[in-house]
Design brief:
By secondary structure, the chain is an alpha+beta fold. Strand 1 and strand 2 form a beta hairpin. A two-stranded antiparallel ribbon has the order 1-2. It has 3 helices and 2 strands, in the order H-H-E-E-H.
Length: 56
């Protein structure tokens, strides 16, 4: 949350951006970067990471 505050981005705004990029939940995301141009880059968790979480 500290990073969101520093970037002046709310949790709701981040969640909205993730939905626009096709993610249903933040749990599907490995990392998010705020680029110098203000755009967000998202790295998805691998299928293996997602399936092992479902088995827990």
């Amino acid at each position: 949350m500290k990073g969101l505050r520093k970037a002046r981005l709310s949790k709701n705004e981040l969640t909205e951006e993730l939905r626009v990029k096709g993610f249903r939940s933040p749990s599907e995301v490995q990392q998010v970067f705020l680029e110098p141009n203000g755009k967000i880059s998202v790295f998805e968790k691998s299928n293996q990471d997602l399936s092992s979480k479902d088995n827990v």
